[in-house]
Amino acid sequence: MLKFKSLALIIMVFMACGTPELDNKSKSNSDSKKEIKMDYTDHHSFAKPAEAVVKHLDWKAKVDFEKKVISALATYSIENLKGVDTIHLDSRNLIIKEVRRDDKEGALGFKIENTNSFLGSKLSIPISKETKTISIDYETTEGADALQFLDPVQTAGKKHPFLFTQSQAILARTWLPSQDGPGVRFTYDAEVTVPKGMLALMSATNPTSKNESGVYTFKMEQAIPSYLFALAVGNIEYQSLGDVAGVYAEPELLEASAYEFANMQDMVDTAESLYGDYRWGKYDVIVLPPSFPFGGMENPRLTFATPTIIAGDRSLTALIAHELAHSWSGNLVTNANWEDIWLNEGFTVYFENRIMEEIYGKDFANMLAILSFQDLNDEINRMKSEDRMEDTRLKVNLKGRNPDDGLTAIPYDKGYFLLRLIEETVGRENWDAFLNEYFNEYAFQVMTTEVFLNVIDEKLLSKDSSWANTIKINEWVYEGGLPANCPKVTSTKFEIVDEELLAFKEGSLDLETEGWVTQQWMYFIRELPKELSKEQMKGLDQNFGFTESGNSEIKSAWFEKVIPNNYAYADEAVQEFLVNVGRRKFLVPIYKSILESNAGIERAKAIYEIARPNYHAVSTETLDKMLDYKKR
Question: What does 46-84 look like in DSSP terms, one character per residue?
């Protein structure tokens, strides 16, 4: 069995650390400082950053769409903290051609130790006390699961190919040899060559139009972990949406995207008013092709987003608020390892809800919270049926496991409700003051669950002994299930839906639904009886057009409800949806619903055989296991 050595880092945490800023507001400095001992183990990286650590990357790359590979030279500036003779990086399915260092002539010998499918390999490079840089000449392979090269037919325009990356959690190592853990940060410069007529974008400073050469340069002055290293290449155009906000998309989607995200600058301004300056310069969003496996990815300066949030009525933009919130929780204060992911996602769901409350009102935010509560209960019930209740803790044990196993609704939604409980217990004014200090004091640093618990106890809960007794924070963090003191949330808009649900259950299809928003429809569909007759499903469809809806959230919820009831009318639409949408959030429950229907595994596999080429590896990793799929 492979043994991992503990990483013990002594981190000097300043009230406001002097991290380089871009063209945004500067933050105030303080002479106050505090020494924190940050002890943690990263089970998912071979790097030993306490010995030798990467600090800056110069990346020169060429994207080859014909071969579907990236050829690159990665030059790292390093710090040999302990005077060791080897620096360790993570690599997976990369062809390492040559390695050099600045203080020794010629190519170096290097060592690659293969391990398992998801951790990849340990890349060991010899260094000396005098080594300042190491250079790695390499090429990606078909096994680069972070990359998805799309043929023109898989894009909106159907004329140009497309490439995007997805590095979280530990897929950066499949296209960049790196110290691939969230606790290691580096700045970077890049030069990327792409076919002429295409635009390249990264999680860095970005161009807003194509050039004639096909060579683009980038700079990221704030240090980021490798999971936020990102690239997109395609026939892409840009539209500004405000002082720091804008949207990129294929030309065919740009107008609709700009309309959908018209409030994005307001979101940035609102977020700043809540928790301090936005520290990343620009906040742009790129709408990717539908095979993107997530709703969004919070790559700094360039959020990646799924086109499934383009609903035409701006009703699904909470996702943008979520990714924006990551600019504070996650990108600014980062979970030290993937077992502390709730410090990233739980805070972000909470912050997202606060942004939406400020812009759309308390009742709208409460609808989002109730839907979140439903998702949380569904996840806990599923895990209970799978005898996985230990995974319903906020601090989850991922040793020997793929970190994706921890990316469930638990860190998102259970984390959110813990933070909401804290707010309701200590009062919003006290809670907001704590969060502002927290984001400022630990900016551009890592955080563990244990340190956070000490910080919140010292800075907040110690002010009133009754608060800790009311919250019982250790129960939330270290015990499974949902604590009894979980906040109860109500919404007048959902109370209206409840009245119409009662009428439906009493046999009426003449429902008062005028003015309902997406969240009300989602709640309505979710709360329909588990068993529906053919007449009921047909009647609902005739009245409200769920099967043909252009809203992906409504359509997905409807499919989950009617597929197990063998609603044949939706079969064609279900297949079309599954073939054209790659968002894992939708795919997993719909395929599960097919498995519960009369069609069963045969139909699920038949659709999957057609749809699988359109999915990113993040989605196929999950679905291959679910459907026991074997490549032909």
Answer: ---TTTEEEEEEEEEEEEETTTTEEEEEEEEEEEETT--
Residue 112 · residue 130 · CB < 8 Å = no
Supply the residues annotated as catalytic.
323, 412
Give, for 245, the enclosing helix (H) or strand (E): strand 245-249
Instruction: Assess whether the region 53-274+282-317 and the region 523-626 belong to the same CATH fold.
Output: no
β-sheet bridge partners, residue 70 = 63
Helix, strand or coil, per DSSP, at residue 377: helix
Distance CA 246, CA 241 (A): 5
Please tell me the distance from the alpha carbon of residue 56 to that of residue 58, in angstroms, as a whole number: 7
Instruction: Please provide residue 375's backbone torsions phi and psi, each rounded to the nearest 5 degrees.
Output: -60, -40
Is the dihedral angle over the CA atoms 432, 434, 438, 440 positive or is it negative?
positive
Contact 199, 215 (CB under 8 A): no
Half-sphere exposure of 554 (CA within 13 A, CB side): 21
Which fold, 523-626?
1.25.40
Residue 131 has which token pair?
A: 């080594």
Please list, residue by residue across 368-393, b when 16 or more beta carbons sit within 10 angstroms of its beta carbon and e when fewer do. Answer: bbbbbbbbbeebbeebeeeebeebbb
* Helix, coil or strand: residue 349: helix
Q: Positive or negative CA dihedral for 390, 392, 393, 395? A: positive
Q: Name the fold adopted by 333-478.
A: Neutral Protease; domain 2 (1.10.390)
Give backbone dihedrals phi and psi of 98, rounded to 5 degrees, phi first: -160, 145
Per-residue pLDDT tens over the stretch 174-207? 999 999 999 999 999 999 999 999 999 999 999 9
User: Max CA-CA distance within the chain?
Assistant: 83
Q: CATH number of the domain at 53-274+282-317, please?
A: 2.60.40.1730
Check pLDDT > 80 for residue 31: no
* Domain segments of the chain as ranges: 53-274+282-317, 333-478, 523-626
Which band of pLDDT confidence, cut at 50, 70 and 90, is reported for residue 20?
Answer: very low
Instruction: Name residue, tokens 């129960």.
Output: 475
Question: String of b and e for 304-325 (b: at least 16 CB within 10 Å)?
Answer: bbbbbbbbeebbbbbbbbbbbb
CA dihedral 494, 589, 410, 369 (to 10 degrees): -10
Instruction: Reply yes or no: is the peptide bond before residue 611 cis, omega within 30 of 0.
Output: no
DSSP designation for 329: B
Whole-prediction pTM value? Answer: 0.92
Beta bridge partners of 246: 240, 284
